[in-house]
Amino acid sequence: MTCQRCENEASVHLTERVDGRRQEFHLCSACARQAGLVLPDSPPNLALDSVVKGLILANVGELAGELAELSCPDCGTKFMEFRGSGRLGCPSDYEGFAQGLLPLLQRIHGATRHVGKVARKRPEAGKRLRLRTLLRDAIAREDYEEAARLRDRLRAGDSHA
Amino acid sequence: MNLDDLTQTSGEWLRGTGPESDIVMCSRVRLARNMADFPFTNRASRSEKSEIEAHFKSALGGVTMGLSYMEVSDLPSLDRQFLVERQVISRELAGGEGPRGVAISRQENVAIMVNEEDHLRIQYMMSGFRLHDVWEEINQIDDQLEETLAYAFNSQLGYLTACPTNVGTGIRVGVLLHLPGLVQTKQIDKVFRALQKINLAVRGLYGEGSQAYGDFYQISNQQTLGKSELELIRILSDVVPQVLQYERTARQALVTERRQHLHDQVSRAYGVLKTAQTISSEETMLLLSSVRMGINLGLIDDLSIATVNELFIQTQPAYLQKLRGNELGVEERNVARASYLRSRLTNGKPTTEE
Question: What is the CA angle B233-B236-B237, rounded to 5?
């Protein structure tokens, strides 16, 4: 059997459930590695970045159509940017991109729920992130009056923090 | 803190004390933390990075252990490399952009990087195999910082980080091991494969992608979500003794099967280090590794482990240049390194105690 992505002989065969449907994958070891599947003979010191990028592509490739449009309301990062860089833009991305991130987290960590130390609740954080994005936009379009107003609102929050 | 003063001292984690310190150079825990109301570092503007830095500095007042803050962005590149060699900052922070820095303790066991991939990377190192002690210390520092700082956290996913590989506990629990026995008996790959199967990462002395300098390997957890800090520490605490056992068995096999050859190798390595007139960093690491094993096997008795541990760091390029007080080319460094090694190994100069 040949690899589904190139002409080489497929050596990795697996079945997965994707959106409730059974899907079969037949890949050669190079393509399987590229797709982020961990093979038993994978060398040590494999750069983490490339592994993550492989995992991202493998897990969110099919959703890209839907997720391609997604961007974070708090920081403006687009899901596609994350897909390219492997870095999220702000804490709110974890909620905004949950649909794309949760399968990825499951693959990386084998879990999607935190266990362990718990931080204090800070309910105002999302709102302040949005104010910062607005501030950055205001400065970019040289609307200094708006920028000053936003800065005051952020400062007022600082004193409550 | 004056950086030049650091050339006179060495990190506590190099002392060669604590449990299993013949193989476990140090135990290390790092926590990735972000401030809740700022974008992650890669997305933050210059002024936001300055604000993050300012918030951190104000939180430092609440940390009972005395830490001094250095603005890495202001440092010349030689100084930044010097801090990388000492394991106090990462290469990523050294080569980063915009306001960023590090708070370190005098003994260099604590280092908190600001505006690295995450807003804060808190690191605690201790000589020997003492992961629980390290966790207790770092947990306390984390609590003290949180008195002032609002951390990015959500109840489902835990501490939120710029890269999804760190989300959850944000913890990396690791040990730095000296494994010359497994390298020489060619069993090291087998051990790596076994560790990878249970989701542990193996890296060289200077982290991700770095070659294994002087037979030093870091073993750490990869999973950060779904297992608590204590569970991850327990996994490492269960696995590391097995690796130590393999290493000891390998060393024993070398002693029984090739005693003369081993003794010769160790003595030659010591001899070259004591007498060479010019020597590269790679050769130095290789020979120091033999000497370190030789001391542990009782083949060398006039040299302390602490001195050898220090020399692994103090023969690196930036350290030598700081010591000389000026920049040196490769050839000049090789001469300076050989001269420094001779002075440390033949004059009976005591190890630095700080």
Answer: 80
Highest mean pLDDT among A101-105, B241-245, B348-352: B241-245
Of A38, A105, A133, the CB nearest to B167: A105
- Asked if B38 and A132 come within 8 Å (Cβ–Cβ), the reply is yes
Those residues with Cβ within 8 angstroms of residue A117's Cβ, 6 or more apart along the chain or in another chain:
B139, B142, B158, B159, B169, B228, B229
Handedness of CA B167, A124, A161, A117 (dihedral sign): negative
How many whole angstroms separate alpha carbon A157 and alpha carbon B322?
A: 45
Burial of A135 (0-12, 13-18, 19+ CB in 10 A): buried
B250 in helix, strand or coil? helix
Q: Considering CB atoms only, which of A91, A105, A133 is closest to B164? A: A105
B233 touches A: beta carbon within 8 Å: no
Mode of pairing for the β-strands spanning A21-27 and B24-33? unpaired
Rounded CA gap, B193 and B201, in Å?
10
Q: Tell me which residue of B46, B45, B69, B47 sits closest to B56, measured CA to CA.
A: B69
**B43 touching A (Cβ < 8 Å):** yes
Interface ipTM: 0.86
Nearest alpha-carbon partner for B156 in B221, B225, B228: B225
- CA–CA min distance A112, chain B (Å): 7
- The conformation of residue A12, written as its DSSP 8-state character, comes to E
Q: Encoding tokens for residue B267?
A: 């003595």
Pairing of strands B158-159, B153-154: antiparallel
Which of A101, A111, A132 is closest, CB to CB, to B48? A132
Predicted confidence (pLDDT) per residue in B37-68, tens digit: 899 999 999 999 999 999 999 999 988 888 99
User: At B46, which amino acid appears?
Assistant: R
Q: Which residues 6+ apart lie within 8 Å of B14 measured at CB?
A: B25, B26, B127, B306, B309, B310, B312, B313
Q: Do B224 and A109 touch (CB under 8 A)?
A: yes
